Amino acid sequence: MEKRIVYLDNNATTRVDDRVVKKMEIYFTKFYGNPSSLYDLGFEAKNAVEDARKKISKILNCSDQEIFFTGSGTESDNIAIKGVARRYQKKGKHIITSSIEHHAVLNSVEYLGKKEGFEYSLVKVDSDGIVDIDHLKSLIRPDTILISIMYANNETGAIQPIEEIGKIAREKGIYFHTDAVQAAGKLSLDVKKLNVDMLSLSGHKFHAPKGVGILYKRTGINPIPLFHGGHHEKNLRPSTENVPYMVGIAEALEIAYDEFEEHKKHIYKLKMMLKEGIEKNIDGLVLNTPKNSVFNTLNYSFKGIEGESILFSLNDFKISVSTGSACTSGSLEPSHVIMAMGREDSISHGSIRFSLSKYNTEEEIKYTIEKLKEVVERIRKISPYKV
Ligand SMILES: *Cc1c(COP(=O)(O)O)cnc(C)c1O
Predict the structure, then answer these.
(1) Which residues are catalytic?
(2) Of the residues 232, 258, 284, the one at which a domain ends
(3) Is 387 domain-assigned?
(4) Ligand 1 pocket by C-beta < 6 Å: which residues?
(5) How confident is residue 386, by pLDDT bands cut at 50, 70 and 90?
(6) How far apart are CA 202 and CA 67, in angstroms?
(7) Both 246 and 290 in a single domain?
(8) How much is the pTM?
(9) How far is CA 326 from CA 10, 200, 250, 266, in A?
């Protein structure tokens, strides 16, 4: 009998919710008009986009005029960072970000540094993978124009002190962006409480399709667009609106927050079950996920073992996990996030991330614990390394 896949890699991407697919469907085949067109088919499409924008703005506690649709989380990060840096460079050319950011942020900042004469500083994290506020404060300079710190880390799940950083940035008159891609459906996205000026989201991390993102941008901030074209999204992101995907991402976000408590309870229970199962059955572990983490993520290093060998062995049992961010997996590079936490090289090479969703079951978790125990014992038996 063909075994079903046990998908525990929901920080890489998620299954699209059937209700989202259903909601999107008619915008492919029935209301397929261009929202800019001046006839009913166009109006229907335009209304759908604006309804989607309103739904999102309610969850983010902002005006619908502050919600912009983009092509991805990466694109939202790029618009926020490059757009603001370029627009306000006369005020200063210094940017602060952290050593544990997603590559969409890290590489954008690095690009500005290498190619456009900006300077940047990386905030350190503690051994829990949480940014060091005192270090951040010490990095602020008169010419600092932008701080970009993620809300929740994709590899460890560590929640960052966004409210506090936002307060500091505001006091100093520095723009503050957060990559909240891993926080959607897991933490409050109230931009007023969070004190953020810009916030990025990606649909495929919360059961909407890949290839659609959201950028919240406070009114009054004007990033220079990356693309130039028509007047869509108030010139910030021109190109004909991807109506079905905009409808889909709004529907998925609404479902995530309507059903928040229910999913939180279910997923957290499974995470704790997995945690207890792993810690009871396997030794030589280093826990890389701190207490203050999103409820779906659990990351361990297994001493003496490369993360990849566990990943591939679990895949033989149809269990999908990852060694950290999908961009580095396969390259056998140690995780920059685990390294930044001060773990030694061998520990950073041995990290495995389990990221759960509402679709996981207790049965899947039990099966995973059993197979993980088997796999780790087998690999350690043939490995010369002694725990
Ligand atoms: C997945 C992810 C991104 C990139 O989003 P895409 O829509 O895949 O471009 C950015 N930041 C974080 C933290 C992510 O997990």
Answers:
(1) 327
(2) 258
(3) no
(4) 11, 72-74, 102, 104, 150, 154, 179, 181-182, 202, 204-205, 213
(5) low
(6) 13
(7) no
(8) 0.97
(9) 11, 19, 25, 26
